[in-house]
Write a structure and sequence with these properties.
Chain lengths: ~160, ~210
């Protein structure tokens, strides 16, 4: 009795504690993007209803609003919006569109580039910026049906957005 | 032995047909339900390439005004066809008119080299003055120098050659007063030809350094 190292209640405490630490760490891990967020784009044109979804919040898109990695952009039935990324990529959405900015990394000093957009539905126009010029293998436009690799260019897409398999 | 063979074949056939029919139920495509991807020329007239891949295969789109349709993630994307102006306007008009028009975007130049050297062609020597002027007038502190070669010779040799070309341009700019820490050098050897050719084909337009000025 009293030998604390072997005390089962202590053991329990320790394991509860370590589980708590583990949960806390995974939470931090998951949220690290919150702390690391920096502006990656700016809204430059808006007409009708357009919104930005960020970490469960809904922001009304207005000219000058800063866009962060993992934001999703949405337009209403009469809405449209255009954003300029910090690498000079131009992206615009037509009405009834949903697009998620999954990854954006523009670090020319480190030679690191990554750009992944995921279009859920609607229409979009895209004009390549520096990422797809300097590292074409790093720029992707994903849709529910296809993966579009971009080699420095301009294109438009229409995504039906019906569940397709 | 023979009956075993027949049973085996019948079994395979049943399996195959069952597989097919279930797949058919699975897909049920509707013609209106197609995703569209249309290639357009850049504002400066240049045309790039896009690569459209599904689980069914991939398609390369390199002609402006052509559209690729994707019906289903398991099907090969359709062969590119020209898109009609009306369809283009009706479907993409709003998205295109929402395209931002930033006050300034990067501008790029191509410098060409003599075969297997870091010697600029005559025309490219003359272009250097314009490049310098652009860097200075924009007060740019981000200039990217990207070296390339044609497809003649081994990869390692061409990587080194493309690096020498890009660094040669960097040194030229530095000697003309551009700060070294504003210049970003990268090189790709024979990996990214401007004009695609077969291996070992000499092509002057691939012996180049792209200069991108922000």
């Amino acid at each position: 009795m009293g030998r604390s190292e072997m005390n089962p209640t202590n053991f329990k405490k320790i394991s509860v504690f370590s589980v708590a630490i583990f949960l806390f760490l995974t939470l931090i891990g998951d949220c690290s993007s919150v702390f690391a967020s920096a502006k990656i784009a700016t809204v430059q044109k808006v007409s009708g209803t357009a919104m930005v979804f960020r970490q469960g919040q809904t922001l009304t898109a207005t000219v000058g609003l800063e866009i962060l990695e993992n934001d999703s952009l949405r337009t209403g039935p009469n809405g449209s919006m255009g954003v300029v990324f910090i690498d000079d990529t131009l992206l615009s959405l037509g009405p009834g569109s949903v697009l998620v900015i999954e990854k954006f990394l523009f670090a020319p000093r480190q030679g690191k580039f990554s750009f992944v957009l995921r279009m859920i539905k609607g229409t979009a126009a895209y004009l390549s910026g520096l990422i797809s010029r300097l590292a074409p293998e790093a720029a992707y436009f994903e849709t529910p049906t296809a993966s579009i690799g971009i080699r420095g260019t301009k294109f438009v897409v229409k995504i039906e957005g019906e569940p397709k398999r | 032995m023979r009956s075993l063979k027949i049973i085996f074949i019948v079994w395979i056939l049943i399996f195959f047909l069952a597989g097919c029919s279930s797949k058919r139920d699975f897909v049920a495509p509707s013609h209106a339900n197609r995703d569209l991807i249309v290639l357009l020329p850049d504002p400066d007239g240049k045309v790039g390439t896009i690569h459209i891949a599904t689980k069914g295969g991939s398609q390369i789109l390199d002609k402006p005004g052509y559209v690729v349709e994707v019906e289903d993630i398991h099907k090969l994307p359709n062969v590119p066809r020209p898109i009609e102006e009306k369809e283009m306007r009706d479907v993409f008009g709003p998205a295109l008119s929402a395209q931002p028009d930033p006050p300034s975007r990067f501008i790029s130049f191509l410098l060409f080299f003599e075969n297997d050297t870091t010697k600029l062609t005559h025309e490219s020597k003359n272009l250097m003055a314009e490049i310098l002027g652009t860097i200075k007038s924009r007060k740019s502190n981000e200039v990217f120098l990207v070296g390339h070669t044609d497809l003649v010779g081994p990869e390692g040799y061409n990587n080194a050659l493309s690096s020498r070309r890009a660094n040669y341009v960097r040194d030229l700019l530095v000697s003309s007063g551009i700060k070294l820490n504003t210049l970003f050098v990268s090189y790709y050897g024979k990996a990214r030809p401007l004009v695609s050719t077969k291996d070992e084909v000499p092509e002057p337009r691939n012996r180049r350094v792209e200069v991108i000025v922000r």
